[in-house]
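Whiteboard transcription, Tuesday session. T.W. wrote the C-alpha cells on the left side:
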C-alpha cells in the first residue's frame, strides 16, 4: 500500500490488474492525488467490483457471486472473499441472492440495479427479491431496465450517483432514445434531477466507458481511451461535480476486455 492519506477510503485492485500497462497510469494518478491503494490476493480475475462486498449504510453486504455469463468459465469466479480480504473488524450482512457488485449503485437511502437481478434469482418471486435486497442494503431498491447490449447486466455503465436526489445517466440520448425514455420513467419517481452525458456525432463504441469512472470522495478518475469523447467526458463530469477534482486516466487495455475503472476497483471504508 502507498503512503497514508487523509481520505477515509482505501481503493483496492486485484493483483491481476498489474499485468496491464494501464496499471502504471492508474497507480500514478492515485499517488499524485494522495489516494491510498492496495492489491487483493487470491482473486480469479481483475474485476474486483463484481465479487467484493458492497458498503451500504454502515455495513458491508456480501452476496453470491455466480453470474450466468461465467457458467462455462467457472475458473474466473472469485467465490470466497475470506481468502481475498480480512473483514474481521467489519460489520457484514450476507444474502444468498446472486448479485454482481457492478450492478449495484448506492444512492444514500436508495440502491439502483438493473432488472437482470430478477433473472439471476428466478427461483424467487420479484417481491421476494426486492424485499431481500432492501433488507441487505438497508435501502429502497430502484429497478431499471437492463441494457441488453451489455451482456453482464451491470448498472455501473448506465447510471451513477451524484448527490441526494441527483443522478447521472450515460449517453442514451445519443445511442438509444427508446431505452433512455424507459430509464427516465424508472428513475424520475425517485430522483428530482437527472443529468446526462451526451457526445452527439462524435460518440463511438467505447464512449460508454467514461461513466464507469472511479470515485474516491472528492476525486473522480475518468477513463480515457484515445477517442474524441475523452475530453468531452471530462468537461461534462467536471460540470456535474463542481466540488470534485476530475482526473483523466488512460485505461485502453481494460476497456478492450469489457470494463473500466469502476469495474476493476473496490472502495474500502476505513474505520
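and on the right, the sequence the group agreed on:
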Amino acid at each position: 500500500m502507498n503512503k497514508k492519506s487523509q481520505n477515509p477510503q482505501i481503493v483496492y485492485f486485484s493483483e491481476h490488474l498489474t499485468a496491464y500497462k494501464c496499471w502504471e497510469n492508474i497507480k500514478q494518478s492515485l499517488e499524485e492525488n494522495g489516494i491510498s491503494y492496495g492489491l487483493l490476493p487470491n482473486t480469479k480475475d481483475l474485476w474486483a467490483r463484481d465479487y467484493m462486498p458492497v458498503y451500504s449504510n454502515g455495513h458491508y453486504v456480501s452476496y453470491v457471486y455466480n453470474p450466468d455469463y461465467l457458467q462455462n468459465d467457472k475458473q474466473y469466479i472469485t467465490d470466497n472473499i475470506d481468502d481475498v480480504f480480512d473483514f474481521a473488524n467489519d460489520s457484514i450482512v450476507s444474502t444468498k441472492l446472486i448479485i454482481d457488485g457492478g450492478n449495484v449503485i448506492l444512492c444514500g437511502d436508495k440502491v439502483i440495479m438493473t432488472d437482470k437481478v430478477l433473472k439471476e434469482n428466478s427461483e424467487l418471486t420479484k417481491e421476494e427479491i426486492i424485499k431481500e435486497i432492501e433488507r441487505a442494503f438497508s435501502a429502497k431498491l430502484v429497478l431499471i431496465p437492463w441494457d441488453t447490449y451489455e451482456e453482464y447486466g451491470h448498472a455501473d455503465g448506465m447510471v451513477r450517483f451524484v448527490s441526494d436526489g441527483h443522478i447521472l445517466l450515460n449517453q442514451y440520448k445519443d445511442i438509444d432514445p427508446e431505452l433512455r425514455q424507459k430509464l427516465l420513467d424508472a428513475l424520475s419517481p425517485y430522483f428530482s434531477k437527472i443529468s446526462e452525458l451526451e457526445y452527439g456525432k462524435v460518440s463511438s463504441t467505447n464512449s460508454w466507458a467514461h461513466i464507469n469512472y472511479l470515485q474516491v470522495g472528492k476525486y473522480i478518475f475518468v477513463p480515457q481511451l484515445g477517442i474524441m469523447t475523452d475530453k468531452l467526458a471530462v468537461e461534462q463530469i467536471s460540470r456535474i461535480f463542481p466540488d470534485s477534482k476530475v482526473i483523466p486516466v488512460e485505461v485502453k487495455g481494460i476497456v478492450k476486455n469489457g470494463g473500466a475503472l469502476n469495474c476493476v476497483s473496490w472502495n474500502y471504508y476505513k474505520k
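Someone added at the bottom: Residues 167 and 231 are 21 Å apart (CA to CA).
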